[in-house]
Amino acid sequence: MLSVTYINREHRKTNYSIEGIFDSVKAVLKDKIEIHNYYADPTISRLKNIIKVKQKAGAINHITGDVNFLALGLGGKKNVITIHDLGYYENPVHSIVIKTIYRLFWLYLPLKFADRVTVVSDFTKQKLISYFNYPEDRIRIIPNPVKSVFQRAEHNRGQKTGNILQIGSGDHKNVMNMITALKGSSYHVDIVGWPSKIELEKLDEYKISYKLHHSLSDEQIFERYKACDILFFASFYEGFGMPIIEAQAVGRPVITSNIGAMKEVALDTAVLVDPHDPAEIRAAMDRLLQDNELYDQKVEAGIKNAAKYDYKVIADQYLSVYKELA
């Protein structure tokens, strides 16, 4: 039986963690391949982790993300690295020194030891080629999977109350433009995340109805999707955009950005907007909530789109990569 050693960072219990993504992949493949795991030890140095992982390396090794530097301990083996995005590398707030270290030890050198690189979107693939001239024929696009918990839940379109769901916080999540778009409306917004003090002040100043949710389980996020009328996920930057397909799998229409990976993932199955334009965002909300035909159209299109990202489908795509290397 084909044997694969997964090289993981320390396990983190967050909803959109790398661990959660690959746990669902491993669950599908456990009867098809022999699975071994190495988890980076946060109590020892990175150099010691590199030495340690060398002792655990198998015939095929798959670095699942974030600990790419461990590839330096895997020389001579068949290695796969999954790169989720280049957001950290591109973030302008980081100093030249930090970016140089990250480029060298998380990207440039690890790529030298990779026989295949999987990326979650063509958006990330093109950046990888542009920045590092990595051979295109060794890159495979394998999207992130939708977990089985996110199943279709019927929603009575006649009972839409203007409940908007926002997943995530931070500057790149575009919370402020969403708040500006909601000004003067009677809509309610559920925010899963930790908005900034300025954003909270604006919510209060504009008298917007809102509720904050923190540290939710997958099952609790599923409940948030079921309770909403629309998912708003028009970030300025995403390597993929998991909430888009999760909401679509549940049967809720999505407003997302007309740029980057979000446009690639959603295509024409969501309402695409300029994330910098609050007026366009508000118009998209109004249209979906007032036009039942458009609403139903996006729901059905989203259901079909999400089916492409079923975790069983994605697991088989990873299996194909392992077979290429075997």
Describe the protein in words:
This protein has a six-stranded parallel sheet with strand order 2-1-3-4-5-6. A six-stranded parallel sheet has the order 9-8-7-10-11-12, with helices on both faces. It has 13 helices and twelve strands. The mean pLDDT is 93. Helix 9 (242-250) packs across helix 12 (292-307). It has 326 residues and is of the alpha/beta class. It folds into two domains: 3-145 and 310-325, Glycogen Phosphorylase B (Rossmann fold, 3-Layer(aba) Sandwich); 157-307, Glycogen Phosphorylase B (Rossmann fold), CATH 3.40.50.2000.
Structure annotation, total helices: 13
Radius of gyration: 21 Å
CATH-level-2 architecture of the largest domain: 3-Layer(aba) Sandwich
Principal-axes geometry comes out as globular
- Report the sheet-strand fraction: 15-25%
Number of strands: 12
Which whole number gives the mean pLDDT?
93
Q: Strand order across the biggest sheet?
A: 2-1-3-4-5-6
Draw up the topology in text.
Elements: E1 3-8, H1 18-29, E2 34-39, H2 46-56, E3 60-63, E4 78-83, H3 87-90, H4 96-112, E5 116-119, H5 122-132, E6 139-141, E7 163-167, H6 175-182, E8 188-192, H7 197-205, E9 209-213, H8 218-227, E10 230-233, H9 242-250, E11 254-257, H10 260-266, E12 271-273, H11 278-290, H12 292-307, H13 311-325
Parallel strand pairs: 1-2, 1-3, 3-4, 4-5, 5-6, 7-8, 7-10, 8-9, 10-11, 11-12
Helix pairs in contact: 1-13, 6-11, 9-12
